[in-house]
Amino acid sequence: MDTQLERTVTPFDAARAEAFMDSVAAMANASALTTMIAIGKRTGLFETLASMPPADSNQIAVRSGLAERYVREWLAALVMGEIIIYEPEAQTYHLPPEHAASLTESGQLGDLGVLARLAVSLSRIEDDLVRCFQTGEGTNYHDYANFHEVMALDSAQTVVAGLFDHILPLVPGIDDRLRQGIDVLDAGCGRGRALLTLAEHYPNSRFTGYDLCADAIEWATGEAARRGLTNIRFRTKDMTGFDESARYDLVTSFDAVHDQKDPGALIAGLHQALRPGGTYLMQDIGGSARLENNRDFPMAALLYTISCLHCTPVSLGQGGKGLGTMWGWETAKALLEETGFSPVVKHVLPHDPMNVWFVAAKA
After folding, report:
1. 289: DSSP letter
2. How far apart are CA 147 and CA 75, in angstroms?
3. How far is CA 226 from the centre of its chain?
4. Band of pLDDT at residue 1, cut at 50, 70 and 90
5. Which has the closest alpha carbon to 362: 282, 263, 257?
6. Is the bond preceding residue 313 a cis peptide, omega within 30 degrees?
7. pLDDT, tens only, 6-16
8. Is the N or the C terminus of the chain less surrounded, counting Cβ atoms within 10 Å?
9. Strand, coil or helix: what is 140?
């Protein structure tokens, strides 16, 4: 045996092993509850419960329009997870307002049930990911069912909700310019929730949204028509090799750059697409490029999991570098500066420590 290996072998710590076993069991239990939360979000059960006084399973099923036997079993799982309160004598169930605050769309703490839906959605491609582990290949955006629906729900919280009070004020003078009328591009717009909101608020400006996925663009186009917006257009577009020159005054991207085939080339293309004096407003995940710096970063394990299951493989599937979700704010800032943006100002909003915002100016 190698003498170095001999020196590093330590005695088996039974207490440590049992503590870790308990931890793994707790993870499995929490994972099961994550699935139940996702089902509760899709079926509207949390919204139903939040609108009702304590009720039995039949009353909840009737109110929600669902099958009682399934509702009862779902309730039981969430009672065991201490998410729903059960009164044995009355056989009633109740969602406390303190829990509804982070599990309903109108919850004052934000709807974290969206993250449960995202986790469950990504887990459905386990077979494809095992193949990727074995071959080094990647995946395609269309492999992920409901992905754009879930991301649109997340965007409503992280971007749309704070658009006018927190995000646009990061760009000096942009409100006045949008009111007067400028050209705006959202790169990787998904379902376009943020762009639709801007187009409604600033009728004198002109808005363009590009995204690779036709299903997302179809939804966005339909929603624009439903709202009667004539100052916005959406196009299905692969932004690899993006080449438009001096067409926009403001370019945005919301959580869209890190899973591109070539983030650096995209940023360079967006720089070229801006007119002189234009601004690029970029949101991305605010973790560090250095693994050891992320131990205290919010939901770091979830973000690395999303990276492993989605952002890294979709980049590799395009022949890209696979930088991943946690490519790091340092990497993003360096690419912006290397492209020629100056100054590049980094912001972290107090209410949203998970994301980083860059305001990058084109001279």
Report:
1. S
2. 26
3. 25
4. very low
5. 282
6. no
7. 556 789 999 99
8. N
9. coil
Residue indicated by tokens 């801006």: 274
Instruction: Tell me the two tokens of residue 263.
Output: 């983030």
Q: What is the tens place of the pLDDT at every residue in 172-216?
A: 999 999 999 999 999 999 999 999 999 999 999 999 999 999 999
- Asked whether 241 and 270 are in contact (CB, 8 A), the reply is no
Summarised one tens digit per residue, pLDDT across range 94-130 is: 999 999 999 999 888 889 999 999 999 898 899 999 9
The Cα–Cα gap between 45 and 59 comes to 12
71 neighbors 45 (Cβ within 8 angstroms): yes
Alpha carbon distance 280, 267 (integer Å): 9
* Residue appearing with tokens 């690419």: 335
Residue with tokens 């690029």: 280
- Tell me the C-alpha to C-alpha distance, in Å, between residue 270 and each of 138, 144, 184, 185, 241: 25, 27, 11, 9, 10
Q: Tell me 326's DSSP state.
A: T
How is residue 247 written in tokens? 């067409």
Give me 122's structure tokens. Answer: 């990504």
Residue keyed to tokens 């290996």: 5
Gyration radius from the chain CA atoms: 23
Neighbouring CB atoms inside 10 A of 298's CB total 13
In angstroms, the CA 156 to CA 163 distance is 10
Q: Are 138 and 322 in contact (CB under 8 A)?
A: yes
Between CA 5 and CA 357 the distance in angstroms is 46
If you search the block for the tokens 């071959």, which residue do you land on?
135
Q: Which residues, 6 or more positions from 86, have their beta carbon under 8 angstroms from its beta carbon?
A: 75, 79, 92, 93
DSSP secondary structure, 70-104, as one string: HHHHHHHHHHHTTSSEEETTTTEEE--HHHHTTTS
Do 210 and 189 touch, CB atoms closer than 8 A?
yes
Q: Assess contact for 266 and 244: CB atoms under 8 A.
A: no
Say yes or no to pLDDT of 361 above 80.
Answer: yes
pLDDT tens for 219-241 read: 999 999 999 999 999 999 999 88
Bridge partners, 233 (sequence order) = 208
State the DSSP string of 172-210. TTHHHHHHH--EEEEET-TT-HHHHHHHHH-TTSEEEEE
> Which pLDDT does position 6 carry in this prediction?
54
